[in-house]
Write a structure and sequence with these properties.
By secondary structure, the chain is α+β, with helices and mostly antiparallel strands. The protein folds into 2 domains: about 300 residues, BirA Bifunctional Protein, domain 2 (2-Layer Sandwich), CATH 3.30.930; about 60 residues. The protein is about 40% helix and about 20% strand. It contains 13 helices and 16 strands. The chain has a 9-stranded mixed sheet. Helix 6 runs antiparallel to helix 7 and helix 7 packs antiparallel against helix 8.
C-alpha cells in the first residue's frame, strides 16, 4: 500500500491547520464587518450545474451515482451559489451579499502549487449592476487580504467588453480565438503575428499590438479613448473609469493597475474583471469580476459581481514575506500518580475554557516534564495525593 497522496492534494499538519483556522476566522470576521452572509453548497452536484458555469468535463472530477446520474465534485463556488439564489433565494430582497469559504476540486495546475483541491474564500454581490457594486467588490477583496496580513498586493483591473468591442470587426472565428488565447497566455510575440495577419482595421491592430500602452494608471483610459472611435469600447472605458474613481473612496485606488489587455478564461464574465497578486512573488491571490448572465442559466436573470481568494496561495506568500505567526501552545499537560484526580482536574479546567492534555501512560514527574517538552507544551501540572506541582 502506497503512503503517498494523489497528485494535487496534500496533508495539513497540526500547526498548518491551526494557522489556516486563524486565517479563516479573520476572513469570517471580515465577512461580518462588510455585511456578507456565509452560505454553503454541497461538495458534489449534478455535472450539468457546473457545466453551465463553463466547467468542462476534462476539468471536473466526475462520477456516476447508483442511479446513473453524472455528478461532479464542486469545481467552483460561484456557479452553485447562482443555482442556490435561483432556487432557494428567488424571493429574497436584492441585492444579496453572500460569502463562502470551502474547498474546490478541479484538474488545473495553472495556479500556485498546482493543487487540485484548494480552499477558496470569496463573495458574491447579487442583484445590482452598479459600478459602485463593482468598486465595493474590489475594495472588499483588498480588505480580506489585508485582514490576513498580506502586504503589497496589486490589483489588475480590466473590462471584458473592451476586448469584445475590438473583436467586432474580426470576422474570422479562428483569429478571434487565437488572439484571445495569446492574451490569456500573455504570448505577445504570437499576438503580434496573429493580429497583423488578421482582417482587423489597422487602428485596432496598432492598439492590440501596443500592449504596454494598455497597462498602467488611469491615464491608460484617456490614451485608449484617443486611439479608438468604437462606441462599445467607450462604454466599457467609461464604466472602468467610474469604478476606478469609486474605489478612491475606499482608499483602494492606489492598489489598482489598469490592464485593458486582460482576458479571462471563463466566458461568463460580462464587464469589469480583476486579479490580485503579490508582484514580488508573481502569485495569483484573488480573481473575480462582473458576470451578469450566469444566473439566467438557472432561470433568473440577475446582475452579479464577485471574487474568489486562494487561501493556500495567501499562506505561501505570507510565509515567504516572513508573516507566518509563531503559534503558541497554551495546552496544559496534566499527569500524576492518581489518574482519577488528574481526570477531575482536566474536567474542571476544560469547563473553564482551558485546553488540557492528559497523560495516559502513568508517567513520573520527570517523565511528564520530558514528554511535555517534547510536545512543545510549556505548561504542565503533576497531581498527587500530597498536592499539585506546576511548571
Amino acid at each position: 500500500m502506497r503512503a503517498q497522496t494523489p497528485r494535487g492534494v496534500k496533508d495539513l499538519l497540526p500547526a498548518d491547520v491551526q494557522w489556516k483556522q486563524q486565517l479563516e476566522a479573520a476572513i469570517r470576521q471580515e465577512f461580518r464587518s462588510w455585511g456578507y452572509h456565509e452560505v454553503a453548497t454541497p461538495t458534489f452536484e449534478f455535472f450539468e450545474t457546473f457545466n453551465r458555469g463553463q466547467a468542462t468535463f476534462e476539468q471536473a472530477y466526475t462520477f456516476l451515482d447508483q442511479d446513473g446520474q453524472l455528478l461532479a465534485l464542486r469545481s467552483d463556488l460561484t456557479t452553485p451559489i447562482a443555482r442556490m439564489v435561483a432556487s432557494r433565494l428567488r424571493r429574497a430582497p436584492k441585492p444579496l451579499r453572500l460569502a463562502y469559504a470551502a474547498n474546490t476540486f478541479r484538474y488545473d495546475s495553472s495556479h500556485v502549487g498546482g493543487g487540485r483541491e484548494r480552499c477558496q474564500a470569496g463573495a458574491e454581490l447579487v442583484g445590482t449592476g452598479s459600478s459602485s457594486a463593482d468598486a465595493e467588490t474590489i475594495a472588499f477583496a483588498s480588505a480580506l487580504l489585508a485582514s490576513l496580513g498580506v502586504a503589497e498586493v496589486q490589483f489588475d483591473i480590466g473590462h471584458v467588453q473592451f476586448f469584445h468591442s475590438l473583436m467586432q470587426d474580426c470576422h474570422s472565428k479562428t483569429d478571434r480565438v487565437s488572439i484571445r488565447q495569446a492574451l490569456i497566455q500573455q504570448d505577445y510575440v504570437g499576438l503580434q503575428r496573429v493580429v497583423r495577419a488578421s482582417g482587423l482595421p489597422e487602428q485596432t491592430k496598432d492598439l492590440l499590438c501596443d500592449t504596454d500602452r494598455l497597462r498602467g494608471g488611469p491615464e491608460v483610459i484617456d490614451y485608449v479613448r484617443q486611439r479608438t472611435d468604437c462606441a462599445e469600447a467607450w462604454v466599457a472605458l467609461d464604466n472602468l473609469s467610474e469604478i476606478y474613481r469609486t474605489t478612491e473612496a475606499y482608499g483602494a485606488a492606489s492598489q489598482l493597475h489598469i490592464d485593458l489587455s486582460m482576458v479571462k478564461t471563463l466566458d461568463y464574465y460580462t464587464g469589469m474583471v480583476f486579479e490580485g497578486c503579490a508582484p514580488q512573488m508573481g502569485s495569483m491571490l484573488v480573481s473575480g469580476g462582473r458576470y451578469d448572465g450566469l444566473h439566467a442559466q438557472f432561470g433568473e436573470d440577475l446582475p452579479a459581481v464577485g471574487f474568489a481568494l486562494e487561501l493556500e496561495a495567501a499562506m505561501q506568500i505570507l510565509e515567504a514575506q516572513g508573516r507566518r505567526p509563531k503559534l503558541t501552545q497554551d495546552t496544559v499537560f496534566a499527569a500524576g500518580d492518581d489518574h482519577s484526580l488528574v481526570v477531575k482536574y482536566a474536567a474542571e479546567q476544560r469547563a473553564a475554557g482551558r485546553s488540557v492534555e492528559v497523560d495516559v501512560d502513568g508517567l513520573s514527574l520527570a517523565e511528564a516534564q520530558h514528554r511535555a517538552a517534547e510536545r512543545g507544551l510549556v505548561h504542565g501540572v503533576y497531581i498527587s495525593q500530597s498536592g499539585l506541582r506546576t511548571w
